[in-house]
Amino acid sequence: MKFLTGIVCIASIIGAGSVLADESRDNLKSEETAQMNTEKEAVSEKLLTDSRMEIAVISAYTAAGDMKNLESAIIQGLSDELTVNEVKEVLVQMYAYCGFPKSLNALNVLMDVAKAGNYREGSMGVTLESSARKIYIGDRKQIELTGSKVEGPLFDFAPAIDIFLKEHLFADIFSRGVLSDLDREVATIAALSAVDGLEPQLNAHINIGKRLGLSDADILKIRQTASKAKMSEFGIGEPNDAYAKYFTGRSYLKTINSNGVFTANVTFEPGGRNNWHIHHKGGQILIVTGGRGYYQEWGKDPVVLKKGDSVTVAPGVKHWHGAAPDSWFSHIAVEIPAEGSSNEWLEPVSDKDYSKLK
Known about the structure:
The chain is α+β, with helices and mostly antiparallel strands. Helix content is 50%, strand content 17%.
């Protein structure tokens, strides 16, 4: 009996040792995974430099056609680390993503800024020889960036566009030097993020950006920055400090009319939203003027809002509205006048519930 008890004890010790060994290996594996993730994020942070973020801002304002803010962005970029020829390369590339007119307008802005200031010129881009096999060069570059040959029924239907993409974009432009492939992809992701309706192309370039080392956090930062370029023509306005305690994240207010029917343009930074609240008696009308956001009534699914959408908020309905995580968001708020009307501010929209939105 003692012999059997001894065997059981030994088996228990061996089993406990095995469990401890397994736990030790699991802990070590977890630590190694955490270390790898930390190292990956550190490398990614180095990739998304300040100068690349300035490229993103310049590209976004070019795509949005906002020459006033583009001028300020160019001056800021040139005053920091960018050279005139680096910005020039970005703006030349933009013709492929937002058209010649916007590219030419932006180059005119750069030319005026460069003439007025004392900025570094930097190295110039190199033009491919006319005898170069551009279709081959472009095809190789496209495969290098995407990881596979790009083909499909669209290019069978319109083969000319395939030639233009390879010869002009991926050969002529990407072979000019001055900017790295990653610089050019940051510019492209930002430009496509600043224009509505280009999600298929944006997602394709996001995948290229990730292949070049950008993290999900990097992509989000670029998109958040770029989305500001497509905000309302009414302007962002001033920080909404008076109501900040009823908001998560920063918001801005631009009063449009304060006589009779109060009307204002409200702008939310990415991830910003107001608390659940109720308009008693009067109600409210929301008209979206820029970006992407949400509206949700208590007990109902959230509704995605984009420029041109409108919502009528009935009196007594508990609801909230605000920006998507990756986009700025603006809407006009029209307060419907009624005798004895008031607003009741309630609890914040929880991070847990907000994180479920897409």
